Amino acid sequence: PIVVAAAFLAILGQPLAHAMPGRKNDKEQKLITRIEHETNPGKKARLQFRLAKLKLGEADQAYRSRNFEDGTALLKQYLDEVRNSWATLQGAGSAMRKHLGALKALEISLRENDRFFEDLRHRVPYPESDFIKEIEKESSEVHNQVLEAIFPGGYTPKGKRKPLPPKSLAPAMTAPAKS
């Protein structure tokens, strides 16, 4: 009966052990340690962005529990990690094209995060939404830089594209002018 009771308590205690605050710190510490030891810029940037996503998730939880001060601090940490990730890839210099997979993963995640920030702004009270809007703007700037690195000279940010001429005018534009 004692063995059965101990096993029962061990099984019931597992969810509580995973819910303890120290568990998140363990995951964060492991990521930080891996980042410090990683020498490949692509892998290091992915790890840094994974840490940024962890901070973003914690910020979301803080805002959901109406802890705006912690949410603000965590969003600042998120932005710092995003910038670190981008700086790591930029530090690769001419070999940045070699880490195209990391660039694409960073771009996709930043695009998803832009949507998350928009949703978050609608969930929080007005004074806090101003700060979130600033974080979103700075994150979007990094996103545009990443897009420029992926598509050098071939990408223009939203709203800045030149409109194509209407199809009805296209043949007239290609035909030589008659004198």
SSE order and pairing:
Blueprint: H1 2-19, H2 21-37, H3 41-64, H4 68-91, H5 100-123, H6 126-150, H7 170-174
Strand elements, count? 0
Radius of gyration: 23 Å
Percent of residues in helical segments?
A: over 70%
**Net shape:** flat
Q: Roughly how many Å apart are the termini?
A: 106 Å
Mean of residue pLDDT values: 80
Query: Percent of residues in beta strands?
Result: under 5%
Main β sheet profile? none
pLDDT < 50 runs, ≥5 residues: 16-22
What is the overall number of helices? Answer: 7
Q: Would you tell me the structural class of the helices and strands? A: mainly alpha
What pattern of helices and strands is seen along the backbone? HHHHHHH
Keywords:
179 residues; mainly alpha
Describe the structure.
The structure is a single chain. By secondary structure, this protein is an all-alpha fold. The protein has helices at 2-19, 21-37, 41-64, 68-91, 100-123, 126-150, 170-174. Helix 3 runs antiparallel to helix 4. The longest helix is centred in the last third of the chain and has 25 residues, at 126-150.
Short description:
This protein is an all-alpha fold and 179 residues long.
